[in-house]
Amino acid sequence: MPDIKVLPEPAGLPSPLPEPDVADLSLPVVLGALSDPLRLGIVRKLLLDREEFDHPCGWFGIDRPKSSLTHHFKALREAGVLRQRQYGLERRSEVRIADLDERFPGLLRLVASWSPDTP
Amino acid sequence: MPDIKVLPEPAGLPSPLPEPDVADLSLPVVLGALSDPLRLGIVRKLLLDREEFDHPCGWFGIDRPKSSLTHHFKALREAGVLRQRQYGLERRSEVRIADLDERFPGLLRLVASWSPDTP
C-alpha cells in the first residue's frame, strides 16, 4: 500500500483560491472530477511524490498544453479535491487530504493505490 | 456505518449480460459511472436495501422514464459496477461486490456511506 505524504502547512501562505467548503463537498462531483486518468494521475502524484507543501503544474511533467492543464487543475479545485494558491505568477496545488478524509474516508487510499498502467 | 448485504448466488441463474472482466475494470471509468447522483443512489440502494439476489429497475422506485433508467443501468453495467441478467422480459441487477472489493477496496463502503441528501 503506497504511503500518502502529509506535510505541515508552512506559515504565511497566500490565501487559497475559491473552493467549496468541506461541508459542501459532494461525492458525485468529486468522483466526476476523478473520472479522468489525467486528473487521477495528478492527484495520485501529489499524494505519493510530494516534495514540497504544494506544487506548480510544471512539476508534474505532463506533456499537455498549459491551457489544458490549467483547465484540469481548476476542475479538481472546483470539485474540492485540490487546494490552489497563487504565488506571484505561479499557481501551486496540494490535495485537500484532511477534508477528503473527513468526508469520504478511503477515497484517497483508492486514488493512491490506482496504477496509471491498468485499463 | 451502513451494512452491505451480500447474498449467496442461487443455482440456475441466466448468464450475465456482456460486462468487462474483473481484470479490465478501470478506476476512472468506474468513478465516471458513479459520478451521477441517480446512479450513485441505484448502487447504494442495491447495497443496503437488497431483498433478493437481483432486482428489476421497477424495484428502485425512481420517478424517471423507463428509457432513461435503462440507459443508467446499462452505463453501470458497462463500467463493471452492476451485473445484469435477463429473466424473460425482465432485466435484473446486482452490484459486483466481490469484483469491486477485489480491485478497488473501500469503494463500495464510500458508496454505501453516501447520503443522497448531502450536496
TrEMBL record, chains A, B:
Name the species this protein comes from: Actinomadura sediminis
This chain belongs to which protein, by name? ArsR/SmtB family transcription factor
UniProt cross-references to InterPro entries, sorted A to Z: HTH_ArsR_DNA-bd_dom, WH-like_DNA-bd_sf, WH_DNA-bd_sf
SUPFAM superfamilies xref list: Winged helix' DNA-binding domain (SSF46785)
User: Which ranges carry the HTH arsR-type domain?
Assistant: 29-109
Instruction: Report the superkingdom from the record.
Output: Bacteria
